[in-house]
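Need the bound structure for NAP, inputs here:
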Amino acid sequence: MDFTNKVVLITGASSGIGAASAVLFARASAKLAIVGRNMDNLRKVAENCETESGHAPLLISADITAEDDVEKIVKETIDCYEKIDVLVNNVGISLIAGIRDGVQPLDKIMDTNIRGAYMLTYRVIPYLEATKGNIVNVSSVLSTTALSFMTPYCMSKAAMDMFTKCLAMELAEKGVRVNSVNPGPVRTNFFTRAGLSSEYSDAILKNYAEKLPLKMVCESEDVAELIIYLASDKARCITGSCMLIDCGGKLGQVEKIM
Ligand SMILES: NC(=O)c1ccc[n+]([C@@H]2O[C@H](COP(=O)([O-])OP(=O)(O)OC[C@H]3O[C@@H](n4cnc5c(N)ncnc54)[C@H](OP(=O)(O)O)[C@@H]3O)[C@@H](O)[C@H]2O)c1
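Answer from helper R.:
Posting the output first, comments after.
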């Protein structure tokens, strides 16, 4: 895969899937703008990218839920590179919450997982139209699998899939593709950030690794490989797709495993 002279903007690049994606895009010679809140982590990712490509990425400290920050993301990227070829909407959070926990978890998750991506994408679209670029959204298998203890998260990822499909329809005539990756469990900090202890998080991932058809869980790099493929010209005929990467979990009713 070759992204020479392509500008790739990745949100949530300070950790997990976003960080792995940044390193893979750097290996493919992309010019990177990487976004996160934790600047220490973002700097470490930038060092890894620079090792791969010899070029330092643009680091942007931003909270995706804050409109001013979202404006800053686009301004700083354009000031630095003058164009955008690929947008990876990767930021996502979860909470262990159902409807009995009230509206607050829903607001927090929707603000981050959907409204944030929506606000940013709206501002990036003119630049993608100019480059005939593309968008990769990071969704989840839980967009189509209901879990009783993650209702707002599952709802947010269902919305993300429809965002992908509607945008693909809206932007096709401008030559802009839009796809999502829909991972099953991935070994990241995601579960501890959702409020689980690290012991419980490890136990969940171990349980999945034993029970998923392929007898393993995805690593961040596995998902990053799919993201970079969808973002590349090799995927030029793919738009509006929500691509499972789940070690076969959907085949075996993954929700019964947890
Ligand atoms: N891990 C899984 O099992 C799994 C499965 C399916 C889908 N996913 C999806 O994969 C995506 C990445 O998750 P991950 O597993 O890599 O988790 P992660 O390691 O927790 O990474 C989440 C990233 O999102 C950023 N972020 C969170 N809230 C933000 C905000 N308000 N503003 C800006 N950045 C924010 C974090 O940045 P800071 O730390 O700098 O704040 C971090 O870089 C998410 O959309 C998630 O829903 C994960």
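Comments: Strands lie at 7-10, 31-36, 58-61, 86-89, 134-138, 177-183, 242-245. The chain has one domain: 7-248.
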